[in-house]
Amino acid sequence: MTTFIATIEHVVKGPVWGCQDCGQCVLHSTGMTCPMNCPKTLRNGPCGGVRENGHCEVKPEMKCVWLKAYDRTQDWPLPSTWKDEYNHLRPPVDNRLKGTSSWKNFFTKRDRWTPAGWKNTTEEVAAQGVDH
Ligand code: SF4
């Protein structure tokens, strides 16, 4: 069921960022480029199918979401902490949150629930000091 706050979020973020209502927003870490507009909904960078002109292999008329995210991260006057997070590993999208408010999920920390099987991997990466 769509809540009032999810409706407000959709109205605000849809036209501006092309928000697809995933309910776990990562815009700040992707140069304000919604990764859910990638036809493969990749959350951690481009696939291997980026064309020579930087466009998407699925939608040739569209620039790769991840190239756009990289350019914006470099060029836009975003906070340095946001720019740093571009290279952080983002957890897989939790489709149970689709259609819910990412604002609400942020404040309730619901968007930080760790999917089963992911926690150890994240901890291992952190322990190794790998930055992505
Ligand atoms: S809530 Fe999800 S779909 Fe909407 S802008 Fe943020 S990352 Fe994109």
Mean pLDDT: 89
Distance between the termini: 35 Å
Structure summary, number of beta strands: 0
Overall number of domains:
1
Strand fraction equals: under 5%
* Largest sheet composition: none
Unreliable segments of 5+ consecutive residues: none
Q: Please tell me how large the radius of gyration is.
A: 15 Å
Summed up, the helix count is 5
Order of helices and strands: HHHHH
The geometry reads as: globular
Q: Which ions and ligands are bound to the chains?
A: iron/sulfur cluster
Helix content: 25-40%
Q: SS-based structural class? A: mainly alpha
Describe the structure in your own words.
There is one protein chain. With 132 residues, the chain is mainly α. The chain has one domain (4-128). The chain is 35% helix and 0% strand. It has 5 helices and no strands. It has helices at 4-17, 65-75, 80-84, 102-107, 119-128. It is globular. Iron/sulfur cluster (SF4) binds at residues 13, 17, 19-22, 25-27, 34, 36, 102.
Spell out the key features of this protein:
132 residues, binds iron/sulfur cluster, mainly alpha, 5 helices, 35% helix
SSE order and pairing:
Blueprint: H1 4-17, H2 65-75, H3 80-84, H4 102-107, H5 119-128
Question: What's this model, at a glance?
Answer:
With 132 residues, the protein is mostly helical. The protein has 5 helices and no strands. The protein has helices at residues 4-17, 65-75, 80-84, 102-107, 119-128.
